[in-house]
Design brief:
The chain has 130 residues and is of the alpha+beta class. The protein is built from four helices and two strands. A two-stranded antiparallel sheet has the order 1-2. α2 packs antiparallel against α4.
């Protein structure tokens, strides 16, 4: 049942009727939990996690283009290095046993959250009938 209920919640979250917005608000944590479960399952399937980190790198950019003098050819543009922040990824070692235990814990918690969301969904449907 949860395999049917949860994708339906995700689909409903993307819509904009008052009922759907109410359901979206009431199931926000459940969607976050789904994302964490998907990430953990992908980590286990790969055998490693993917870690995001940021770096600051110099980038060669056009700083200014001088205005040409009347009757003269345009002077060459002026380039300089600007610092730019980039997000990159790298593999990260994980303990597969700990990751499996984490996945089971997330699945158990998701089931609890799905059961708790059922009355919220029913209330939203009663409050905003379509």
């Amino acid at each position: 049942m949860r395999r049917i209920l949860l994708p339906a919640l995700v689909i409903l979250a993307a819509c904009g009727t008052p009922q759907e917005q109410c359901i979206n608000r009431g199931t926000r944590d459940l969607r976050v939990m789904e994302k964490l479960i998907a990430e953990t399952e992908a980590n286990i399937a790969r055998g490693y996690a993917i870690e995001e980190y940021t770096v600051t790198v110099p980038v060669w950019q056009l700083c200014r283009a001088p205005a040409p003098a009347p009757g003269q050819p345009a002077p060459p543009p002026h380039y300089c290095f600007e610092r730019e922040t980039q997000t990159r990824t790298r593999p990260k070692a994980i303990d597969l046993n700990a990751e499996s235990a984490k996945l089971q814990s997330l699945l158990d918690r998701r089931d609890q959250m799905a059961r708790a969301a059922e009355p919220v969904i029913a209330q939203c449907k009663a409050q905003y009938p379509e």
